[in-house]
Amino acid sequence: MSALASSTGRARIGVRTLRTDRWWLPPLMTFLGLTAFVVYGLVRTFMNQWYWVPEHNYLAPFFSPCLSAACVPGSSHFGQPFPDLGWLVPPPIFVLPFVLGFRLTCYYYRKAYYRAFWASPPACAVGEPHGRYTGESRFPLIMQNAHRYFFYAAMLVAAVLTYDTAIAFKGTDGGVGAGLGTLLMVVNVVLLWAYTLSCHSCRHLVGGRLNHFSKHPVRYWLWTKITWLNGKHMLLAWCSLASVALVDLYVMLVAGGFISDLRLVN
Asked: How many CB atoms lie within 10 A of CB 98?
């Protein structure tokens, strides 16, 4: 026992892993899910059409906020500070880098795509094919430390999407209206706020650097709630990712005339 306790170094085994379960399935599903979202996002971004439904005030989340002079009339709720730079620079290009930056540097997504795309490592107790490990101390992975700054940008985008959802409740006759698209947008912003607020950076911002929680009861209460959300960060990451794609797809289908919005209240 003393010899085992004092041994150093990693176990030397001749196989990649001793696991007999289907350890490769979770990283494979992650790979397929993230790849599908990236492909859809690229297609939608450079499609550059069918993102605004004027009669229902539906704006696709991939194009919100629409800040380019190339945006269709009525879709720019916050002005058009950027010029029309042609098909190579569609309107989402001005906002998506900040949204993607938040997700790419997210602690959960790091683990997800490190395993699924880089096999570093592919799963727990499974050897990786890389010859050495440098962590996140070198370029480009050292840029992961910018996560806390992307968090502020993500908060702003979530606020903009909340505004988009609020104006979607405007009815065709000037009163209150709602359709299936409105409900989907509500679910989307709830999931986005839950995912954003469950972020580790938000948890640290609220309760970090406090030596005595008893002296800060309000921040402690907020910290406990965000800590509870943080435990569901992985679930919220996937649900919010799926909801963004679903709402964007729904708005595209309505804007393109492929389907009609199911109106609940006109």
From this structure: 15
Is 151 inside a domain boundary? yes
Q: Kindly report the backbone phi and psi dihedral angles of residue 148, in degrees, each rounded to the nearest multiple of 5, phi listed first.
A: -60, -30
Q: Is residue 207 part of a domain?
A: yes
Name the domain count of the chain.
1
- Tell me, yes or no, whether 44 lies in a domain: yes
Torsion of CA 45, 49, 54, 56, to 10 degrees: -60
Q: Say if CB 62 and CB 96 are below 8 A apart.
A: yes
In this structure, is residue 173 part of a structural domain? yes
Residue 187 — pLDDT band, cuts 50, 70, 90?
A: very high
Q: What is the distance between the alpha carbons of residues 159 and 164, in angstroms, rounded to a whole number?
A: 9
Give the domain range for residue 112: 24-125+136-265
Contact 184, 193 (CB under 8 A): no
Element spanning 265, H or E: strand 263-265
In this prediction, residue 175 carries a pLDDT of: 81
pLDDT in tens, 202-240: 999 998 888 888 889 999 999 999 999 999 999 999 999
